[in-house]
Amino acid sequence: MNYGLNDRMPLFPLLLYGLQWLVISIPSIIILGAVTASMNQEGAAQQILYIQKLVATVGGGLIVQMLWGHRLPLVMGPASVLLVGIISATAARADAVNTAIVLGGALLFGLGISGMFDKVQSVFTPRIVVVILALIAFTLSPVIVRMLFGRTTDVLFNFILALSLSLVMIYLNNRLPGMWRSMVVFMGLVVGTTVCFLVKGPQFPAEIGSVSAFSAHWFDFTFQLDGGVLLSFLFCYMALILNELGSIQSVGQQIKADKLNERSRRGISVTGLFNSLSGLLGVIGPVDYSLSPGVIAATGCASRFPLIPAGVGLIMIAFMPSWLVFISAIPEVILGTILLYLMGSQLTAALQMMAREKSVSSFNSGLIIGFPLMVALVISFAPEQALAELPPLIRPILGNGFVMGTLTVLLLEHVIFKDEKKSF
């Protein structure tokens, strides 16, 4: 290892490694940010403003994590599990969603600083974690389908492009060494967009010139409490905690960092704080990503300090919206393809954990995993007119495949098959 966790370095290597982390961070922010912005904002100018706020929030969160949070070399990005909550609450006002994100972040912050988080961990058995990881991928499937085929007549072109690009990214992920593997998503984004531009031509919205570096609309929060939306997001934050913990533990164990439990509590506290800030700004909340182990192994740099200039770079980009204009021209089929690849990776992580923990050793233990996934799939693909018949208060819960899948696995694991857990 060239640089350890707390090793400082000369300015040039610091900036060079910082640029590397910046380039690795940007694709996830662009992809999930663009998907969420297209669902929440009308017009390209508003969508780019959404991305600006998201990039600035992630950059600020990254800096605070390096200085006062977990202080581990981990990149941040939008939490895909919160996208599940946003999708399920499309019938509710944006103010209710933002309020739920503020309160969910406050809950995380409270769990982190109070020390109560250690007691919460006992709920998450390996089988429940496997199901939650898989649920994120399964419940985002309808979104992927709509992005690939929902708004176009070029179904054959989109299908061939999505399948080909996904397979190419899988091949590159298998063949490229260390750090380059972390660039696969960015490569796929560039190559896929280029192919679409060559076939269909680029399309930049006319109103793009109205984007400004700073706007009064950065801060436009109205408190609106919706019980159904809030409960739905609380389940999403259960999964976000698992994501955060897994990222911290994986990198911490790789570089043999000390006081991992304390780092986890501080990391969760900072993540909660910046989720609340995200809600106030009206954007999706961030979480730490588990991309770092491969990058650290490839570069030999485990120092946390290069991520500080990376965070500064993100904040600078946020206030230069002309750099973000190209986001408005990324074809929806490419965003859907990248999301397909990412959710395939998410499902792979669930299957790896299931094998590693030997989570399925009997019919009943398999049912604990399989049945909640089927419940989630049925709800996720249920006709919109059927979900519209549900009472508004409970629609974000009963109409949310992720929430119902999580409730089902908790019921099976801790109630119905409680007495059989040891025999599994």
Automatic annotation (TrEMBL):
<keyword id="KW-0472">Membrane</keyword>
<feature type="transmembrane region" description="Helical">
    <location>
        <begin position="314"/>
        <end position="342"/>
    </location>
</feature>
<dbReference type="GO" id="GO:0005886">
    <property type="term" value="C:plasma membrane"/>
</dbReference>
<feature type="transmembrane region" description="Helical">
    <location>
        <begin position="397"/>
        <end position="417"/>
    </location>
</feature>
<feature type="transmembrane region" description="Helical">
    <location>
        <begin position="129"/>
        <end position="149"/>
    </location>
</feature>
<feature type="transmembrane region" description="Helical">
    <location>
        <begin position="155"/>
        <end position="172"/>
    </location>
</feature>
<feature type="transmembrane region" description="Helical">
    <location>
        <begin position="100"/>
        <end position="117"/>
    </location>
</feature>
<feature type="transmembrane region" description="Helical">
    <location>
        <begin position="267"/>
        <end position="285"/>
    </location>
</feature>
<keyword id="KW-0812">Transmembrane</keyword>
<feature type="transmembrane region" description="Helical">
    <location>
        <begin position="221"/>
        <end position="246"/>
    </location>
</feature>
<keyword id="KW-1133">Transmembrane helix</keyword>
<dbReference type="Pfam" id="PF00860">
    <property type="entry name" value="Xan_ur_permease"/>
</dbReference>
<feature type="transmembrane region" description="Helical">
    <location>
        <begin position="47"/>
        <end position="68"/>
    </location>
</feature>
<protein>
    <submittedName>
        <fullName>Xanthine/uracil permease</fullName>
    </submittedName>
</protein>
<keyword id="KW-0813">Transport</keyword>
<feature type="transmembrane region" description="Helical">
    <location>
        <begin position="184"/>
        <end position="201"/>
    </location>
</feature>
<dbReference type="InterPro" id="IPR006043">
    <property type="entry name" value="NCS2"/>
</dbReference>
<comment type="similarity">
    <text>Belongs to the nucleobase:cation symporter-2 (NCS2) (TC 2.A.40) family.</text>
</comment>
<dbReference type="GO" id="GO:0042907">
    <property type="term" value="F:xanthine transmembrane transporter activity"/>
</dbReference>
<feature type="transmembrane region" description="Helical">
    <location>
        <begin position="12"/>
        <end position="35"/>
    </location>
</feature>
<feature type="transmembrane region" description="Helical">
    <location>
        <begin position="363"/>
        <end position="382"/>
    </location>
</feature>
